[in-house]
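Field reference: sequence -> structure
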Amino acid sequence: MKKLTKKEEVIMNLFWDNGPMYVRELHDIYPEPKPHFNTLSTQVRTLEANGYLSHKVTGATFQFYAAVSRDEYSDMNLDTLIGKCFENSYVNAISALIKKEKVTVSELQQLIDQVRKGI
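Structure field:
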């Protein structure tokens, strides 16, 4: 899937936090500065075309909802990062975090314990 822009991430976070919405409802809760309604509608349609949103028809309008969960999106981003920066190796990524002292020995032990427990 195509990576989200910052504005698209704002929209998706609103859907992930609030559930299904009409574009009017989305516009009402969108943080300032709010985009023009038509601009927001176009962004929603783009997100739908890219597989992030879907809709159901209610009367003459569409109610949109997230077709991808926040966790699925996070996983896709992590996979992309690991692929681009660490030669598709999660071990290389963890090693880099340890070398930069971003992960402590205690935290690493917690990860090992989780792996052993199958979490």
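Note: The radius of gyration is 19 Å.
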